[in-house]
Amino acid sequence: KQEVTQIPAALSVPEGENLVLNCSFTDSAIYNLQWFRQDPGKGLTSLLLIQSSQREQTSGRLNASLDKSSGRSTLYIAASQPGDSATYLCAVVAGANSKLTFGKGITLSVRP
Amino acid sequence: DAGITQSPRYKITETGRQVTLMCHQTWSHSYMFWYRQDLGHGLRLIYYSAAADITDKGEVPDGYVVSRSKTENFPLTLESATRSQTSVYFCASSDQTGGRNTEAFFGQGTRLTVV
Questions:
Q1: Contact B103 A49 (CB under 8 A)
Q2: Distance separating alpha carbons of residues B94 and B92, to the nearest angstrom
Q3: Are A21 and A9 in contact (CB under 8 A)?
Q4: Residue A104: its chain B contacts at CB < 8 A?
């Protein structure tokens, strides 16, 4: 059974800091990995999708990397801002049925 | 408007009542999913569908029923609501192009309280 882990559960950083959020998964036979953002009381917003054949994806200040063999992904946020405060979830698709398995998320607080 | 919408956004119901949560997507994505989100458990898959008239159980299907007569709609029914089904429910959709899974998109969620 695929398990996705995100540690730590919460993180507080000062504004302007570059930071890395980690995600690990137990079964390396994934189809893709997706990073989401969730604001309090809101739905999930897709940030980046990395296909299994890719090593990284970039969108603005965000860069996500994927190392299938070690079962790890990282989300790099450059020059963090208070508006980046949210919960960040990673999810993997490990089968042809497109089911996502989620980590429990990292709640990020960026202090002004 | 294009996207995935859930209704209602908030619902309070009594124990034992039947309640249906609606989900509609405008992209004609083949896959649709229902997740519930609870503190300490994260997001767990209830049911999913690969196409119209094709549905399958996820991790926590007990007490729920789904149907998918049309590609764009995927309602979730709680046959006899229990307090343990108090949760935030999210619907999602995704597709496959050239054998590759596309991004999954989520609705805004339905907050259900069973009293």
A1: yes
A2: 7
A3: no
A4: 41-42
- A-B contacts (CB, under 8 Å): 59
Per-residue CA distances from A47 to A28, A29, A33, A53, A64 (Å) = 21, 22, 11, 18, 9
| B76-113 pLDDT tens trace | 999 999 999 999 999 999 987 776 778 999 999 999 99
Q: Which of A51, A98, A102 has its CB closest to that of B42? A: A102
Helices (H) and strands (E) in chain A, counts: 0, 11
Contact A93 B101 (CB under 8 A): yes
| Residue B74 near residue B23 (C-beta atoms within 8 A) | yes
Note whether B33 contacts A99, CB cutoff 8 Å: yes
Tokens describing residue A97? 């049925």
